[in-house]
Specification:
The complex is a heterodimer of chains A (87) and B (234).
Chain A (H helix, E strand, L loop, with lengths): L2 E11 L6 H12 L12 E9 L2 H16 L5 E11 L1
Chain B lengths: L1 E6 L6 H11 L3 E6 L11 E4 L19 H11 L3 E5 L1 H8 L6 E3 L7 E9 L15 E8 L3 E3 L10 E6 L18 E5 L5 E4 L17 H19 L1
Parallel strand pairs in B: 1-2, 1-3, 3-4, 4-11
Antiparallel strand pairs in B: 5-8, 6-7, 6-9, 9-10, 10-11
Classes of the chains: A alpha+beta (87), B alpha/beta (234).
Amino acid sequence: MRKMYRVRVQILPKEGVFDPQGYTVRGALEKLGFDGVKEVRLGKLIEILMEAEDESHVRTLVSAMCDRLLANPIVETYRLLDVEEVP
Amino acid sequence: MRCAVVVFPGSNCDRDAYHVLKNVFCLDSHYVFHEESFSPDEFDLIVLPGGFSFGDYLRAGAIARFSPVMESVRRAAELGKFVLGICNGFQILTESGLLPGALLRNRNLKFICRDVYVRVTNNRTAFTCSLQLGEVLRLPIAHGEGRYFVPSDRLKVEQIVFQYCDEHGTVTDEANPNGSILNIAGIINERGNVLGMMPHPERCCEEILGNTDGRKIFESLIAYFSWRKEHAAD
């Protein structure tokens, strides 16, 4: 029987790709006195509610979603943050 | 020369492109909706116009690349038909892998809408054969995600067709509006039939609009196309 899962995927600009949003936010934090902040990277958090057989099936499907659509491998990396079964 | 202008939900330069092809250059031109398909030899030139296809959601061009019409575009490109992606069309071409690299948020995070100068860095293409090497064109840009990025091993120097420059043709960082790597404004695939560019040549093809520099790109294509046709008949 298929179960319901809530999945969160994090997408970040790749190392070496200039991230102007992160750069700007870092500057703003510095102005607020947070002088220890060396780098900020801004990405996306995608939350997906989906049906699947089990957790490993979820991981396979979400990786395929990221490879095909959710992330652009030339400039972004993705990471599956958590998979939670929803009752 | 039979031309197609692809219309995605959110395209907003489709009519400009169609008008220029049909009324300025008197070419046999047709709109093709994103849900339609066409046979690979149906059109000689396929234009992917500017706009905000699918609201630019996720990434510019990321969703449009999966429109049914893109399979037809890919097959036509494989057959050697010309494909011209302008602005959002360029973004769709990179997302679909028909051109290398990616287009990212402008480095100043602003939507930039103004005229820029670009230098013809390669005139040995069908899209630039009527232009001089180093010729400077003034073309309008209007984009928020035009910062071209490509890993160095994915693009050959001769694939760079247009570079942002100053009015004298010097490629400088000050003349780079969006932070594109090597000031790249337009690139071509290795085979030489698919070109993507952020500036809008279709917006400057008529005297009444105050600038006709965009004409030269369409004139190059038309000249190349007729030359190839004659050549094939020999």
